[in-house]
Design goal:
Chain C: It is a multi-pass membrane protein. Chain C: InterPro entries: MetI-like (IPR000515), MetI-like_sf (IPR035906). Chain C: It is found in: Cell membrane. The complex is a heterotrimer of chains A (about 675), B (about 300) and C (about 325). Chain A is of the alpha/beta class and about 675 residues long. Chain A is about 35% helix and about 20% strand. Chain B has one domain: MetI-like fold, CATH 1.10.3720. In chain B, about 70% of the residues lie in helices and about 0% in strands. Chain C is mainly alpha-helical. The chains are: A alpha/beta (about 675), B mainly alpha (about 300), C mainly alpha (about 325).
Chain lengths: ~675, ~300, ~325
């Protein structure tokens, strides 16, 4: 008998606009010791399935169907009965580790409590066991750290604690709901490893819920693809990635930029948005977005059925796809026609920084703020951006990439070092005219278009704002706004709507239109697609590529997703703890990255290909960023796998100040590492 | 820059979601669905109408005593009875309510405006302006304001217009602190930062980006301010520091009623009932508005 | 922590000094102690009035700055807060009345917190249920009953009951009876006097705690860490008590601390109606009697209590919230 069986599970929530059918007839089956992945975009219902299994949905949810754990029915049980199952038989890991732990209790106490809910141990025994668990999930010096409070831990460390709590009573089933979405890639690699260890240790079945196809490729045995509240495809992981049958899955896989497909080649952009689940769909829920939809698709919602052995799919044309060579990928519109590959010709320098430094005071105490030190966020960054090219800054949270762009965008003289924008050095107060010219010349697109658009202004007013600030006339503004809407592919009639009326992708288009309003030479793209669903990401990436070739604007891209960076960039600089550790032409960096941090970053970044994911060697970094004293030497030392392997006499060099060394034979490839060979 | 390529691009139109509601209509609908709030609105409207046009409800003038009817219980001639001085209680209650409402509404409007300008201004302009405003706010919170209110109100011999000024002068402080702290988070909002990076002027940002996003808070403050002012005014007048005879407010009436509580309870009960109904109705309106503006209240939709 | 508290206290002290002096100025501007004497018979001459006021440092012929200086000197050197226009010592009044108010108001505050927080928890757990709706309706009604009305209603009801029972069941005036001796009778007598004013203050005071505790708890009930706690196997009610309530009590502790100034000066109306000679009554008496020094002393006392409340709030927060404690 399977460990977990879900039969015809449906969940409905009441809402202001009527009931929402969040989950519709889902069947799942998971064996002990195996990993089943539930993958889908936001709103696909995947997290609701997890909530229904463990019985933690809000009381307003209406649940039908069966959840069987070892054949034992879980649905319809009272909270009291379920609480004997939760924690003991089912452990759960949540998405946001920053809020998942109670801030008032020490982490040790929280693990301890989780043990004592189900096991009759003395406080002392439980505490010792908690310390053991914390050690198991990779918390160094666990006996001491157990007494710390959650706010003293980083996100990755807190997620380890959450995992420790989840496995505290050796559960048979582990549910991980987007366990690494909120984390940096190198930390994600660490946490996934811990989760794997935990699963091995307990022999539990793992239900892994994620939107990241790379994580699925690396960790799942079986995969369920969810769309509009239903499972639309189910297969073993290798089968699914090699021979996807559902047009939706095919679209998703084509929407992810990959190293092999090459740069700037148009990506599959699945048109439209997922349906709102206010009514049960009468036909295939994917019909409006599917390139192969035929009349029969509207007749009835296709059932999930077996196409080839072990491969289930909910598409009436799956037979043609599997056997008759119906090429769905070719049917998808590729956004726009291929953009000619450009060679990087060094045009004029539009933006540059030299030895840029930015520090923030560290204040302590919420009662009476006092400065206790300074946090140097940016430590001497040199960065050049030429007209029409894309130069990316890659790094994890705390690396100082956001501080760098904000320092440039504020157009104030830097604390130390130089900034030059459009050939004008920023020194002292700029006169109003120069200031306005530079403001127009460098604009920003942020990650979260929802947050960057004032909900109380119409699209017209949003787009008018930069033009008004530049003192354009009313007629000029009007004309320009419609030009901009055309440029980003939005209909003119959206101008009088409010931002809330748009989907995430459309909002990002508005944000891009606003940034382009004053025909800037430089657009700073701060994580431009990371808040978007996979299928929408591709759409925006296509748009960005098209706009750059059309307008020859230079992009200063800041991103953590390496596939996006590789897709868009001409040059890439890798940032770690406020310094640039390596800078190179994009292809060169991705193929021949030299710095040990670059290598770790590249190896930690998941690729949506199970064959690659499971064969390549992964460098998992240990410890946390910036955990040692700053002696002016290499800042990566505490985490560096090379440093720890070096003989003592070689180590001394790493304590010398960092210098950028050029890689032999490759112009523009420079690396700040004493230990690595540069030929 | 050319736009000709646009014609060959896929033009995306806004997707239609079922029953997409305008923001204001959504608020109105949520408010009206709240039965208690709607009842509050009706009661309050009735009170406002009575205090505006209620003179015909009683044939007597509030200040002209009927010496033939001293301390009379409610009767056909005097619906609410009379006071020991022979004044018609109904006429007095109507006048007192009008006086109390006028004071409350004026003070509430004045304090909302003061608190919004000072709170939002301090938060957005930062620097010296912020320091000075916060210093003033803190200072006024330490000063026992009720005492100073009483001190000043007492010496102006019960002029209701001066009372409005004094109550407003002290009433804005608490609200301004709240608005300041909300504004300090608003000023970090990405769209505010974006506006700054586009070179939009400071006052323009305050007017376009800060104040509209404070609107719901301000509206709720205004209704709660009405309740607070009515209660403060009542206390002041009851203690003899606010409105003074011959002028009449609900507080003055309560003072009058308290002295003959056992012998002529109607003098106390009628103004007390009106007072409680009035404040309850305004509180219900305020609660209804707060729920209507609250984005998380969507969870209470229909099934 | 100690250093921090010292610094905080210093800045509060400065605010208190400024506030007290501003009140002194305002009180001298708006109060006229001479008017008290005009009501005595025979009416004394202006000179006689001023002469008798001069003995108490209230002579209006002396420039304000000089009066202020000697007032301030007496406080700093002898901690003497001056005299009332009829010669009574402000210090003596304050000492006596503080104690009277304290018994009344401390008990009421404790009751308010217990009742309010308890009902808040019940309300939040049964959000939108029948219990919650009833409790909220009662609270909203009480929230809107002015103190005057509540106190007078209680007095009215008590008198009616006394009349119908035929003997004095409820005591409606004063803080103690004159001829009571012995420990037990004294305690019983005090409690009997405390009953009605305490009920009045509690009924009006618990509402704030009820409504805020309810919404605070509702904010944390849906927090991720409560979900984590439930996922470890804690039943809903336990998860809320152990995790959500602990977080939601932090702001309440702060507001209890901040309510302390109101504790001593906020019972003005209740004390007036129930005939308690406490700080609240003193407040209205000094104003009515043009007692400049008394008014200022009340103001200073109020400001001091605000400061103590704020500092206690800081300590409470630091004690309850590790994020602040360790900062």
């Amino acid at each position: 008998m399977s460990l977990l069986q879900v039969r015809d599970l449906s969940v409905t929530f009441p809402s202001e606009h009527g009931p929402v059918h969040a989950v519709r007839g889902v069947d799942l089956e998971l064996e002990a010791g195996r990993t089943l992945s539930l993958v889908g975009e936001s709103g696909s219902g995947k997290s609701t399935v997890a909530g229904a299994i463990i019985g933690l949905l809000p009381p307003s949810a209406i649940i039908s169907g069966q959840v069987l754990l070892d054949g034992q029915e879980l649905t319809g049980r009272t909270d009291q009965e379920l609480s004997r199952v939760r924690g003991r038989r089912i452990g759960m890991v949540f998405q946001d580790p920053l809020s998942a732990l109670t801030p008032m209790f020490s982490v040790g106490r929280q693990v301890c409590d989780a043990i004592r809910v189900h096991q009759n141990l003395t406080a002392k025994q439980a505490w010792n066991k908690a310390v053991d668990l914390l050690e198991l999930v990779g918390i160094r010096d666990p006996a001491r750290r157990a007494k710390s409070f959650p706010h003293e831990f980083s996100g990755g460390m807190r997620q380890r604690v959450v995992i420790a709590i989840a496995i505290a009573n050796n559960p048979d089933l582990l549910i991980a709901d987007e366990p690494t979405t909120a984390l940096d890639v190198t930390v994600q690699a660490q946490v996934l490893e811990v989760l794997h260890t935990a699963q091995q240790e307990t022999g539990a079945g793992l239900l892994l819920i994620t939107h990241d196809l790379g994580v699925v490729a690396g960790h799942a045995d079986d995969v369920n693809v969810m769309y509009a509240g239903a499972v639309v495809e189910h297969a073993k992981v290798n089968e699914l990635f090699a021979r996807p049958l559902m047009p939706y899955t095919i679209g998703l896989l084509g929407a992810v930029p990959t190293a092999t497909a090459g740069q700037r080649t148009p990506l599959i952009a699945i048109p439209g948005d997922p349906p709102q689940l206010h009514q049960e769909p009468s036909g295939c829920p994917f019909i409006d977005r599917c390139p192969a939809a035929i009349e029969a698709c509207a007749q009835a919602e296709p059932a999930l059925r077996s196409e080839t052995s072990g491969h289930l799919v909910a598409c009436i044309r799956s037979g043609e796809i599997a056997h008759d060579g119906l090429d769905i990928a070719a049917l998808y519109a590729r956004g726009n026609e291929a953009v000619e590959q450009r060679s990087i010709q060094h045009g004029e320098l539009v933006l540059s920084t030299r030895r840029l430094v930015k520090s923030y005071p560290i204040t302590k105490g919420t009662l009476l703020r006092r400065q206790v030190g300074t946090n140097v966020a940016v430590r001497g960054v040199d960065f050049d951006l030429f007209a029409g090219e894309t130069h990316s800054l890659v790094g994890e949270s705390g690396s100082g990439k956001t501080s760098t762009i904000m320092e440039i965008l504020h157009l104030n003289p830097p604390e130390k070092g130089q900034i030059e924008v459009l050939g004008t050095p920023i020194t002292g107060a700029l006169d109003a005219h120069t200031r306005r010219r530079l403001r127009a010349g460098i604009q920003l697109v942020t990650q979260d278009a929802t947050a960057s658009l004032n909900p109380r202004l119409t699209v017209y007013d949003v787009l008018a704002e930069p033009l008004q600030a530049a003192h354009r006339s009313r007629a000029q503004i009007r004309g320009r706004i419609y030009e901009l809407l055309d440029l980003v592919g939005l209909a003119h009639d959206v101008a009088d709507r409010f931002p809330t009326a748009f989907s995430g992708g459309q909002r990002q288009r508005i944000g891009i239109a606003r940034a382009l309003a004053l025909e800037p030479k430089v657009v700073v793209l701060d994580e431009p697609v990371s808040a978007l669903d996979m299928s929408v990401q591709a759409d925006i990436l296509n748009l960005l590529v098209r706009l750059q070739s059309q307008l020859s604007v230079a992009y200063f891209l800041v991103a953590h997703d390496l596939s996006v960076v590789r897709y868009l960039s001409d040059r890439v600089s890798v940032m770690y703890l406020g310094t640039i550790v390596e800078s190179a032409p994009a292809e060169d960096l991705f193929d021949y990255g030299l710095h040990p941090y670059t290598k770790a970053l590249l190896s930690a970044s998941p690729v949506p290909d199970p064959v690659v994911e499971r064969t390549r060697q992964r460098i998992v970094l240990h410890g946390e960023t910036g955990s040692e004293d700053d002696d002016g030497g290499c800042v990566f030392r505490p985490q560096c796998p090379l440093y720890s392997a070096l003989p003592d006499e070689m180590r001394a060099r790493c304590h010398q100040p960092q210098v950028m060394r050029a890689r032999n034979g490759v112009p523009g490839h420079r690396v700040a590492c004493h230990a690595v060979a540069v030929d | 820059m050319s736009v000709t390529t646009a014609s060959i691009l896929r033009i995306e139109s806004v997707h239609a979601e079922p029953e997409r509601l305008g923001r204001t209509r959504l608020y109105v609908r949520r408010f009206m669905r709240n039965r208690a709030a709607f009842a509050g609105l009706l009661i309050f409207a009735l009170f406002v109408l009575i205090s505006l046009f209620g003179g015909f409800l009683s044939p007597y003038n509030y200040a002209t005593p009927d010496f033939l009817a001293l301390t009379q219980p409610p009767s056909a001639a005097h619906l609410f009875g009379t006071t020991s001085g022979g004044n018609d209680v109904l006429a007095q209650v109507i006048h007192g309510m009008q006086r109390s409402l006028t004071i409350a509404i004026c003070v509430s409007l004045a304090t909302v405006i003061l608190s919004a300008v000072i709170g939002a201004g301090a938060a957005y302009l930062r620097g010296t302006v912020e320091k000075v405003s916060l210093g003033l706010i803190h200072f006024l919170l330490v000063v026992p304001s009720f005492l100073i209110l009483a001190l000043i109100a007492n010496s102006v011999a019960g002029d209701w217009r001066v009372l409005i000024v004094v109550l407003s002068a002290f009433g804005w402080v608490g609200a301004a602190r709240v608005i300041w702290s909300v504004s300090t988070t608003l000023r970090e909002r990405e769209y505010v930062v974006m506006a700054e990076l586009m070179g939009v002027g400071r006052w323009r940002i305050i007017v376009r980006h800060l104040i509209p996003n404070l609107a719901s808070l301000l509206i709720v403050n205004a209704t709660l301010g009405v309740v607070g002012t009515v209660l403060t005014e009542t206390s002041l007048s009851f203690l003899g520091f606010g409105i003074k005879v011959p002028d009449v407010s609900l507080g003055v009436l309560l003072q009058e009623g308290s002295s003959s509580l056992t012998t002529a309870p109607w003098i106390f009960f009628f103004p007390a009932a009106v007072l409680v109904l009035l404040t309850v109705s305004v509180t219900l309106i305020g609660d209804g508005l707060r729920d209507a503006f609250d984005p998380t209240s969507a969870a209470r939709g229909r099934r | 922590m100690i250093k921090l508290l010292v610094r905080r206290s210093t800045s509060w002290l400065i605010l208190i000094v400024v506030a007290t002096n501003v009140t002194y100025l305002l009180a001298n501007l708006f109060l006229d102690p001479r008017s008290n004497y005009r009501e005595t018979r025979p009416i004394p001459s202006e000179k006689q009035i001023d002469d008798s006021l001069a003995a108490y440092g209230l002579d209006p012929r002396v420039p304000l700055i000089e009066r202020w200086w000697s007032w301030l000197r007496d406080i700093v050197l002898h901690f003497d807060w001056g005299r009332s226009p009829n010669g009574g010592s402000v210090n003596a009044e304050m000492a006596y009345r503080t104690l009277v108010s304290a018994q009344l108001v401390l008990i009421a505050t404790v009751l308010c917190v217990i009742v309010g927080v308890g009902l808040g928890v019940v309300s939040a757990i049964h959000q939108y249920g029948v219990i919650d709706r009833v409790l909220q309706a009662v609270s909203i009604l009480l929230y809107n009953v002015p103190t005057v009305v509540m106190a007078l209603l209680l007095v009215f009801g008590a008198i009616r009951i006394n009349e119908s029972v035929g003997h004095t069941l409820f005591l409606v005036a004063g803080s103690q009876s004159p001829q009571v001796s012995g420990l037990l009778p004294t305690i019983v007598d005090r409690l009997a006097h405390l009953l009605l004013p305490t009920v009045s203050l509690t009924l009006l005071g618990y509402v704030g705690y009820h409504l805020t505790q309810r919404s605070l708890l509702l904010d944390t009930i849906n927090a991720d860490f409560v979900r984590t706690a439930r996922a470890t196997g804690l039943p809903y009610g336990k998860a809320i008590r152990r995790h959500a309530l602990r977080a939601a009590l932090i702001p309440t502790a702060t507001s209890v601390a901040f309510s302390i100034p109101g504790v001593f000066t906020g019972a003005i109306i209740t004390e007036s109606i129930f005939g308690w000679h406490g700080m609240g009554e003193y407040f209205s008496l000094t104003l009515a009697k043009n007692d400049v020094n008394g008014v200022v002393a009340v103001a200073a006392f109020g400001a001091l209590m605000t400061a103590i409340g704020a500092i206690l709030a800081d300590i409470a927060t630091a004690f309850l919230d590790p994020r602040v404690r360790l900062a």
